[in-house]
Specification:
Blueprint lengths: L1 H8 L3 H17 L5 H13 L5 H32 L8 H21 L7 H10 L4 H26 L3 H37 L6 H8 L1
Length: 215
């Protein structure tokens, strides 16, 4: 991280803009990647007169949105084949179908909050594609989420200036807390589903049930 920041510090504003766009895009495809910290750093450079705040926000948001939609496309084109061949260990096809149902019902709310859910962005964008959510609505919601999040980061970087590392430390802590909370929620949800299936004597939403629903 320090080496990357040192490299960016020696670049002209034009190359810093390119770096912000590229890093915001790549972070969606190859997590974890420190895009948030870089965006904060870019905000601090704006405070030092080495960039334009609006252009930085636009490029960070554009990169984030294109990255999100790239994962959406991958999920839409290849997600079913990957999941149905059970290439993901410990995840059954029945569970995948349940998640898809849940995502189709609540997915747009998840897209709105996706930029604030550190560590899950690539998964969320992939799931939107697998669930075949409306591409126009998904694009607009992901762009709005990215715009708000990046605006906050750049504003914080602008406020603290050279002390941008303080924000980086807070972001690292925030990311860990969010990841733990999400993991706990998933575990609790899985435990509740398992207990209910044990009480009922058979798994809920089995393939035969789904076939009955369709008929």
């Amino acid at each position: 991280m320090e080496d990357l920041v040192a490299t960016l510090s020696g670049l002209s504003p034009a190359w810093i803009y390119v770096a912000v766009f590229a890093i915001s895009y790549i972070e969606n495809l190859f997590p974890p990647f420190p895009s948030d910290v870089i965006v904060v750093f870019a905000g601090s450079l704006v405070a030092l007169g080495q960039g334009n705040a609006i252009l930085t926000v636009v490029l960070a948001t554009t990169g984030s949105t294109l990255g999100f939609m790239s994962m959406y496309w991958l999920g839409d084109q290849f997600g079913d084949r990957i999941l149905e061949k059970e290439r993901i260990p410990f995840i059954s096809l029945d569970l995948v179908h349940k998640v898809q149902k849940w995502f189709k019902r609540y997915g747009y709310w998840v897209v709105v909050g996706n930029r604030f859910l550190a560590g899950t962005r690539a998964v969320i964008s992939f799931c939107t594609g697998v669930s075949e959510m409306n591409i126009t609505v998904t694009t607009l919601l992901s762009a709005g989420s990215a715009l708000l999040w990046n605006s906050i980061l750049i504003y914080l970087g602008y406020l603290v200036g050279d002390n941008w590392r303080v924000i980086g430390d807070y972001l690292a802590t925030y990311s860990k807390i969010v990841s733990i909370v999400i993991a706990v929620v998933i575990l609790l949800w899985a435990a509740v589903k398992w207990i209910r299936s044990r009480r009922n004597g058979n798994p809920a939403d089995s393939p035969s049930d789904e076939a009955g629903e369709k008929s």
